[in-house]
Amino acid sequence: MLAVSDTAIALDDIRLTLGSAAGPVNILRGIDVRIDAGETVGIVGPSGSGKTTMLMVIAGLERPTSGRVFVAGQDLTDLSEDALARFRRDHVGIVFQSFHLIPTMTALENVAVPLELAGRKDAFARAEAALAAVGLGHRLTHYPGQLSGGEQQRTAIARAFAPQPKVLLADEPTGNLDGETGQQVIDLLFAESARAGTTLALITHDPVLANRCSRQVRVGDGRILHDTRAKGAAA
Amino acid sequence: MRQDWSLAFTWARREMRGGLAGFWVFLACLALGVGAIAGVNAVSQAVQEALLRDARALAGGDVIVRASYQPASDEQLAFFRTESVAVSQGLEMRVMAGGKDATQRRLAELKAVDAVYPIAGAFTLENGEPLADAIAQRDGQWGAVAEQDLLDLLGLRLGDPISVGAQTYVLRGVITREPDRATGLASFGPRLLVALPSVEGTGLILPGSLVRYLYRIALPPSKDAVAWAAMLAERFPTAGFTITPASRAAPGLAETVGRLTLFLTLVGLTALLIGGIGIANSVQSYMAGKTGTIAMLKCVGAPSRVIVLTFGLQTAALAALGIGAGLVLGTIAPFVLSAVLESLLPVTLEPGVYPGALGLGAVFGVLTTAAFALWPLLKSRRVTPARLFSDLVAPTGGRPTLAEIAAIASLLALLAAVAVLTAEQRGFALWFVGGIAVAFVLFFAAAHALSAIARRLVQSRLAQWRASLRLALANLCRPGAPTVSVVLSLGFGVTVLVAVAAIEANLGRTLRDELPAKAPTFFFIDIQPGQLDGFRETVASIAGEHDLTARPMLRARIVKINGRPAREEDVPENVRWALRSERGLTFQADPPSEGPIVAGRWWPSDYQGPATISFHAGLAKGFGVGVGDTLTFNILGREVTGAIANLRAIDFRSIRMQFTTIFAPGTLERAPHTILATTRTPPEHASELVRAVSAKFPNVSAVRVKEALDVFDKLIHQISNAIRVIAAVGLAAGVLVLASAVAAGQQARRRDAVILKVLGATRPNVLATYLWEFGVLGVGTVGIAAGIGAAAAYVVVTEVMGMQWSMPWLAILLTVPLAMAITLVAGFASVWQALGQKPGPILRNP
What are phi and psi of B239, to 5 degrees? Predict the structure, then answer.
């Protein structure tokens, strides 16, 4: 049994094959990885190596062809689409490269959505607090179109952390931002996960950022090539 | 300048390479609206042409002379003959026809004709036998032919005996076409047609009986019918003839067709205007998609004018395509609909192509496109090249400048002007156009109110109840929400449907329930004065309360007003009917129970003196006469002048026995007259009463009020259906607009749905959000539309028709789910794709 109490994410021989006109394409070819609660993991690798697919499998957004997925103590393998949605609602926060805020909602409304879905009466109060925590207390009623890129990503981070997820997934969260803004966003991301004890898995092309993580997983051609822990990090 | 045009032309051609994708709503809206207007007018023109072409056949000759109570004199008849190529004599009256069981009698419209009938048009029988043979006397037995309805009512088959008064005929044929049926008396029963010489044997031609003698006259081609008719009227000024040239034989029918055409054209225009919102939406979303291109073009130095021209030319090309499709619909409409119309009309249609009708449709199409596409096109001037450097999330907003508003307003004014100026009844068209404008403003205001209410509710405790409800309410009041589009587009169609249903329900209730409850059960006509006591006894012998009323009646025409000849054209349209033909009048000593006296005084009950009358107040107003003025009547060829002693307010809608003219005693008692009687007989004794009366008094005809009302009810139903068809076109335009509004947001919806799912929304969550959104939108729209529709119906029913209003909940409840279903289906269609959207492609894009 892979899933133990201090394991946040466990992938067990994950394979994912997609059909295409030129024949089946193997995206993931047997991924085995275990991430403990509270770890910060940088997932690196060239474009097309399967990093994003791996992240989406962890989020329950993509179903593997074979293998088993355990996240936050739950086996995702046999969950229905709606059960997966509830699972994400309760346990997983996601931050994307291109923010993916809902353009017709204000910053406050965007952050409140997952809380509202969870049926929390204090959804807006918590959303407001979450935005204040990322330094956007003065931007509550702004629409995404009225926010800068950095502000949009901070809103997205507030949205991801507001429900206090056990696991936070980030897909190149600084890819669309300039260096300085990206740095601020990363600081925020690490600070928030450290404060809440959240397990963080992030995809990045930035070696500096990857080095900041307690662990680096290098993916290539649908497999894990290297899995290294930073010095001093817990095994 | 020329360079601008050629550049715009080239760019427009390049832009068109993308094909028609994204423009199908634009095209369909235009095609539908233009097709409805062109089609209605083309069909109407086909009908009007047929009425004109068949005018001789519809009338039964070139000139028709009618005389009531007594036939034309030999001298008069001789004059008809010397002037014409043929004269066909005949008469018409209402009779009670009996079948094998002689006690079962039904009211029939008897028509007797001579051997030359018909001199215009073709008369046909089901078995193909010539009419003259069928109604001829064979072996001492006269023949008769009848409409199928009479056979059904009396349970007759060909060869059976059919009796009228004292005469028994053999039924020899079923009428399939009677060319001049439409222009005779108002029809209260099926036609029974016999030979003129046979009528004497019925014994029904009694003094004062309501018999109309008809002379159908065919003129030589050299003579003009209208001029000849005028000459005839001058030659026999006191004969009391009603002389009608063929071209005016069916004024009622032509007028009805004209009115219906105008009304349907205006409803078609409404459909086109609803479509205009679809046109605006399509151009708007196309231009939104082109924002990047426009910014880029400006970046490399393209002037705004060239850009507006480019997309303007493209819009014009698309409009030409849509209008062309509409014109094709308009062209084929008369061909497709001719079979349906021929079953309703007394004429055969020979449809053709009607450039006038098509032109009208095209003009409306061009103006509508211009009015609705102008603003989205002009907005492209506001796109700045700087947009290339910021994201394109927020749409190009802003309000139109005064000059732009003026341009759009003048296009709309031009549209209204064309609608009013091309209408025959401009007053009505003006009211209608004004109504549309008011409705547009109301819907616009209501849509914004709905948004405002949603905005309020989002923050209320109600919205906390369900996350999906809060999200849905928020969706309704967001920038770029389709709320206004949906309310405007669906609202109009639903309003028309609710209004038609409500008016029809009120009319129907009045006709079927209220009028029959208050009105008499029967009108008994042609009772001879000597039969009155016997008639009273007969009625009294039947069980039940009958509330019998009986009054002497003669028919007379008003020929002079204050000594001057009374001509129709000299009085307002709403009172012309009173001069057109004879009206019934009576004489009595005591004031009638109904119709209060509003001017003058009633005469003493023992009055004996010069001719004095009591007259209808409404007609007096139209004629410009009052107490002390005189009216001259032609009564059986004699002119009688009476001074108006008082005026009564008469409400004919009660269908009680009421007369426009009542003479004081002392003038008409000696004139041949009959008695008109009404009864309010309990339904269970009605048949018994008819049997008893017709057995004892074969000359007395019983008109069952309910049957007469049923005829009217059926007519109302047919007109309502015509309006419904056009309202459905409006609703179809509304659905298209709704689809376009939904489609415009489709991309965004899918993206939102994926993000919601990532954030933990289950499919039922997403579904519930959209169902709430479209449900609230649907309920809001339908509520607003039902309110405005019911208000419009209320005005029509109480103000125009002067009837009692009752809220037709059932009619509204039947219309509302239809509209709700449309909204929810449209909403559901948009949700369905969003629900199944795979997250990968949307989330991966940078």
Answer: -70, -20
**Which of these, A144, A147, A142, A113, lies nearest to A127 by C-alpha position?**
A113
pLDDT band at B31 (very low <50, low <70, confident <90, very high): very high
Q: Do A143 and B845 touch (CB under 8 A)?
A: no
Is-contact B823 B486, C-beta < 8 A? yes
Q: Which residues of B touch A102 (CB under 8 A)?
A: 751-752, 755-756
Contact call for B748 and A104, based on CB within 8 A: yes
Measured between beta carbons, the chain A residues lying within 8 angstroms of B458 are none
B807 touches B790 (CB < 8 A):
yes
Least confident range from A142-146, B257-261, B394-398: namely B394-398
Which residue among A94, A109, A121 places its CB closest to the CB of B474?
Answer: A109
pLDDT of residue B398: 65
Interface of B with A in 343-402 (CB under 8 A): 391, 393-394
DSSP SS3 for A156:
helix
Residue B760 contacts A, CB cutoff 8 Å: yes
Q: Which two tokens stand for residue B365?
A: 């199409």
Determine, for residues A81 and B843 on separate chains, whether the beta-carbon distance falls below 8 Å: no
Measure the N-to-C terminal CA separation of chain B; round to a whole number of Å: 43
Tokens of A215: 């662990």
Task: Please name the residue of chain B whose CA is at the shortest distance from the CA of residue A101.
Answer: B755
B242-245 vs B63-68, strand pairing mode = antiparallel
For residues B264 and B423, give the distance between their C-alpha atoms in angstroms, rounded to a whole number.
11
Residue type, B78: A
- Residue B207 contacts residue B672 (beta carbons within 8 Å): yes
- The pLDDT value recorded for residue B393 is 41
Which residues in B lie closer than 8 A to residue A49 (C-beta atoms)? none
Task: Please choose, from the candidates B238, B253, B215, B267, the residue with its C-alpha nearest in 3D space to the C-alpha of residue B63.
Answer: B215
Mean pLDDT of A120-139: 90
The pTM is what?
Answer: 0.69
Structure tokens at B678: 């009404």
> Is the separation of the CB atoms in B301 and B58 below 8 Å?
no
Which secondary structure element, helix H or strand E, spans residue B841, and what is its range?
helix B839-844
B478 contacts chain A (CB < 8 A): yes
Contact assignment for A100 to B843 by CB distance below 8 Å:
yes
Q: Say whether B759 and A114 touch across the interface (CB within 8 A).
A: yes
Confidence of residue B471 (pLDDT cuts 50, 70, 90): confident
| Closest residue to A117, CB basis, from B751, B761, B845 | B761
- Which tokens in the block code for residue B52? 């004109």
Give me B181's structure tokens.
């049926």
Gap between the Cα atoms of A141 and A147, Å rounded: 10
- For residue B482, the Cα-to-chain-centroid distance in whole angstroms is 34
Q: What is the tens place of the pLDDT at every residue in B81-125?
A: 888 888 999 999 888 888 877 677 888 889 999 988 888 888 899
Distance, CA of B310 to CA of B226 (rounded, Å) = 59
ipTM: 0.80
Segments of A59-180 assigned E as strands: 66-71, 74-75, 92-95, 167-171
**Smallest CA–CA distance from A118 into chain B, residue:** B760
CA distance B271 to B3: 39
Rg (chain A; Cα; Å):
17
Residue-level pLDDT at B473:
82
Q: How far is A11 from chain B (nearest CA, A)?
A: 20
